[in-house]
Amino acid sequence: xxxxVVVFDYGSGNVHSAVKALEHAxxxxxxxxxxxxxxxxxxxxxxxxxxxxxxxxxxxxxGGDQIIDSRLAGGKAVLGICVGLQVMFETGFEHGxxxxxxxxxxxxxxxxxxxxxxxxxxNTVEVPPGSTLFRxxxxxRFYFVHSYAATRFELExxxxxxxxxxxxxxxxxxxxxxxxxxxxxxxxxHPEKSGPAGLVLLTNWVDSL
Length: 209
Fold this sequence. Notes:
- With 209 residues, the chain is an alpha/beta fold.
- The protein has a single domain (4-207), classed as Rossmann fold.
- It is built from six helices and 13 strands.
- The longest helix is centred in the C-terminal third of the chain and has 13 residues, at 195-207.
């Protein structure tokens, strides 16, 4: 039976391309902001496009912060995409504005120090050993569109939890390209726009549910 995945429809993100890609990856996909449906699904995808502050505002107004907290507390999978990765951090600095994030991970999202912004196009990634998301596509390129990123990741494993697996990329400076942290995974790039490699990554995630 196909795994049930909800793409959280809170008004931000390239939701229709994400739905199509996840369907190609073998999931049964629902596009909704309904709390009960989002809580019951095998996997929840949180897309995000635009400014950190605007994404956080829309996410909180739709109750997404509580849904994400509840799912993770129960060990149920969440996948953030693009700004959906960024808002998992404590703080975002954008256009001189400081915005509180979801705080799932310590750290700050800020403007990349690079000669050309946005960072737009295909880029390689540096995948740690043991990655589930990148199995079979460790050496592929993925599609990025962003000017802001997390450039440090300082969360360590402890107790029953293994240390997060952090994948890096570089544009002017090193930045976090993806994180695998128990039930919470996220990518700075767009797997739904990353061709066959992105489809493999999404299939790996769906298969892990």
